[in-house]
C-alpha cells in the first residue's frame, strides 16, 4: 500500500455478491497452494475457507455501492503477501471503533496464531458467506459479529453512530462504525481482557487504549491511524 489514506463519511452501504471467478486466483493457483501449505506447516491453526473481496464500487450522494466476488482465504492471503498488486479487487471490510465515555478508543493486538500476528487495529475481519443477509453483503452484521467474537462485547450495549467513516488506503477500503459506550476505557479494556483470558484461541492477545494523537504509533495499521488522526484533529 502506498500514498496517504483518505477518510470520507458515508451515509449508507449497498453491497451485493456476484458469483464470478477471480482471474488472479485462477492464474496463480499452483503458487497459492504451495505458499499456503508452507504457512500451515509453520502455523497449523491457519484457516482456509471462502471469503469475499470487492470487485468494484461507486460512491455518490453519500452511498457506497459495490459488488463482491467470492474466493478462498489462501488466495486472498497470497495476494496480500504479494503486496496487494493490481488484480481487479479491493480488501473491503468493516471495523468496530469502540469509543469509551472518556473519548478514548480501544484497539486490539492480534494473537500469535493468527495470520496478522502482532498487528494493531480495530476489531474487524474479512467478510465471508456468513455476512450475506437477505441476498446482500451486510457489513453492519459483519462488524457486530466481529466485535463480539474478538472482545466479547454485546453490540446492543453501545450507541452506534449513524453512517460510516470510510478509509481509502488502496488496495484496502475500511468501513469504520463507531460504537459509543457509557463506560470508561479502563473498564472496557478490563472486560475485553477477561474475555480473552477465557478463550482457548482468542484472536487478540491484548488491548491498546488510545486517548489522543500522542498514543498513535507506527505499530498500528495505517487505516486505523488515519481514522484516529482525523478524530483527534476534529476535537
Model description:
This protein is of the alpha+beta class. Helices cover 29% and strands 34% of the residues. It has one domain: Nucleoside Triphosphate Pyrophosphohydrolase (Alpha-Beta Complex). The longest helix has 14 residues, at 29-42. The mean pLDDT is 94.
Provide a quick synopsis of the model:
This protein has about 240 residues and is of the alpha+beta class. Helices cover about 30% and strands about 35% of the residues.
Index terms:
single chain, Nucleoside Triphosphate Pyrophosphohydrolase, alpha+beta, 14 strands, globular, three-stranded mixed beta sheet, nine-stranded mixed beta sheet, 235 residues
The radius of gyration over CA amounts to 17 Å
Please tell me the total number of domains. Answer: 1
Q: Name the CATH superfamily assignment.
A: Nucleoside Triphosphate Pyrophosphohydrolase
Distance between the termini: 28 Å
Number of strands: 14
What's the SSE pattern?
Answer: EEHHEEHEEEEEEHEEEHEH
Count of helix runs: 6
Indicate the percent of residues in helices. 25-40%
- Net shape: globular
Largest sheet: 9 strands, mixed
Just name the CATH architecture.
Alpha-Beta Complex
Amino acid at each position: 500500500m502506498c500514498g496517504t489514506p483518505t477518510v470520507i463519511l458515508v451515509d449508507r452501504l449497498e453491497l451485493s455478491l456476484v458469483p464470478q471467478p477471480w482471474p488472479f486466483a485462477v492464474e496463480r493457483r499452483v503458487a497459492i497452494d504451495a505458499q499456503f501449505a508452507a504457512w500451515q506447516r509453520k502455523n497449523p491453526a491457519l484457516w482456509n475457507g471462502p471469503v469475499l473481496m470487492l470487485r468494484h464500487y461507486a460512491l455518490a450522494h453519500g452511498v457506497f455501492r459495490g459488488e463482491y466476488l467470492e474466493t478462498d482465504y489462501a488466495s486472498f492471503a497470497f495476494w496480500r503477501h504479494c503486496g496487494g498488486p493490481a488484480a481487479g479487487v479491493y480488501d473491503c471490510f468493516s471495523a468496530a471503533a469502540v469509543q469509551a465515555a472518556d473519548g478514548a478508543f480501544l484497539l486490539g493486538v492480534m494473537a500469535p496464531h493468527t495470520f496478522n500476528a502482532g498487528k494493531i487495529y480495530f476489531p474487524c475481519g474479512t467478510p465471508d458467506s456468513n455476512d450475506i443477509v437477505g441476498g446482500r453483503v451486510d457489513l453492519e452484521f459483519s462488524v457486530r459479529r466481529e466485535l463480539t467474537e474478538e472482545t466479547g462485547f454485546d453490540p446492543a450495549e453501545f450507541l452506534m453512530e449513524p453512517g460510516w467513516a470510510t478509509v481509502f488506503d488502496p488496495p484496502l477500503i475500511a468501513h469504520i462504525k463507531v460504537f459509543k459506550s457509557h463506560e470508561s476505557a479502563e473498564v472496557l479494556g478490563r472486560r475485553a481482557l477477561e474475555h480473552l483470558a477465557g478463550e482457548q484461541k482468542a484472536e487478540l492477545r491484548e488491548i491498546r487504549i488510545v486517548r489522543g494523537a500522542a498514543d498513535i504509533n507506527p505499530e498500528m495499521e495505517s487505516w486505523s491511524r488515519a481514522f484516529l488522526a482525523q478524530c483527534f484533529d476534529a476535537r
